[in-house]
Amino acid sequence: MTDNDTLRERIAGELSAARDRTTYLTTVVGEADLVRQHSPLMSPLVWDLAHIANQEELWLLREVGGLTPIHPEIDPLYDAFEHPRAKRPALPLLAPGEARGYGHEVRGRVMDLLEKTRFDGTRLTDGGFAFGMIAQHEQQHDETMLATHQLRAGPPVLSAPPPPAPSDAVTLPAEVLVPGGPFTMGTSTEPWALDNERPAHVVDVPPFYLDTTPVTNAAYAAFIADGGYDDPRWWTADGWAHRQRAGLEAPLFWRWEGEWVRVSFGVGLPIIPNEPVLHVSWYEADAYARWAGRRLPTEAEWEKAARHDPVSGRSMRYPWGDFDPTPEVANLGQRHLRPALAGSYPLGAAPSGARQLIGDVWEWTSSDFLPYPGFTAWPYKEYSEVFFGPEYKVLRGGAFGVSAVACRGTFRNWDYPVRRQIFAGFRTARSGSLETA
Ligand SMILES: [Fe+2]
């Protein structure tokens, strides 16, 4: 088999895995649930369904294949920048059957195109980039649709086995030391990395301590019990104003019934103390960290803890090394519908000893979403460039609902500091002293 054949096979596998997941998430509910808006924060599921197909047509059939548009008249309906999510239900969207038919037609033509494509010669086809971008795009929408499922009211429709439990979590230290010094952040070589992850550049990071695991429900409940939501000392001015306005008292989907209960995909059960906390905003994460006498890690600290190998001095693709994620090293890909207990996945640990940096929960960092030195927007400005600025905070590491194809040690996610319908948690840090490093 040639390298081209191997790549072709990988692409076909990633595209079909994404489509299987899309199909699952849009067939476990009936038509009424597909066209309904479950939250003003989210699109109706049927919008995601046709938008996935439309982006695949735009980038693969039209840009790579040079083919004539199938349905140019619907392009504006599925342009994410033309219509905010809250307005999408009022659009003359394709009905569920039409959206599925459109996706099927596009995919059939994409598979024909894939057979003929050589993976060199243009920047879009080099290393299969455009195909990888579209597989990631569909998986990212699958994650968004999973968040829509979490917001949906009604009887539960999703199920999955629980994640594996750790064997040695009780013996783990609370924090690990990441020694100071330069490391390589970002990438110039990862073929399917998106523009905001590029280019690789050296960043000097002073020594710091990082929580070994994400902050747990029990630790977060202690913050609540200690009056953390009622004490402006722990909150930034913006965070406190938001806490007052929105009436925040606990993470989203928590309710008090004599004990804290968390509703997860329609099932309400008492919180699991040692499970990473989920569905907190950046403001809440930041307030918790101050209450704990600590702070959120910067994005550079997070990536150094996740990728820097002090033995070779090199940045690895993942905390565990260079091989792609497997079920043994990280909780990804919606195999489970919740984060694994803190301290799980010893085989996925970073050289520093930190665990679960990849998978389980997205982790808020203290950093604004900004371009790396030498950034160039590609293949379109709306992927990242239009979002750069202080209004967005960076999240790292991916959650249980993130696919491995859309998760790398370099992958950057971003959102508003008020957002909490996303699968976000966090861990905390503190600066180390040069003497101890
Ligand atoms: Fe999209």
Brief summary:
Helices cover 30% and strands 14% of the residues.
What does this structure look like?
With about 425 residues, the protein is an alpha+beta fold. Helices cover about 30% and strands about 15% of the residues. The protein contains nine helices and 14 strands. The chain has helices at about 5-25, 30-35, 45-65, 95-115, 130-150, 215-225, 235-245, 280-290, 300-305, and strands at about 175-180, 180-185, 200-205, 210, 255, 260-265, 265-270, 310, 315, 360-370, 390-395, 410-415, 425, 430. Helix 1 (about 5-25) runs parallel beside helix 5. The longest helix has 25 residues, at about 5-25. It is globular, with a radius of gyration of 22 Å. It starts with a helix and ends in a 6-residue tail after the last strand. The structure holds fe (ii) ion (FE2).
Taken in chain order, the helices and strands follow as HHHHHEEEEHHEEEHHEEEEEEE
Average pLDDT figure: 96
Helix percent band: 25-40%
Query: Biggest β-sheet, characterized?
Result: 4 strands, mixed
Distance between the termini: 49 Å
Q: How are the strands ordered across the major sheet?
A: 12-11-10-13
How much of the polypeptide forms β-strand, as a percent range?
Answer: 5-15%
Number of helical regions: 9
Structural class: alpha+beta
Q: List each distinct ligand once.
A: fe (ii) ion
- Please give the radius of gyration in angstroms: 22 Å
Q: Indicate the overall shape.
A: globular
Number of strands: 14
**Unreliable stretches:** none
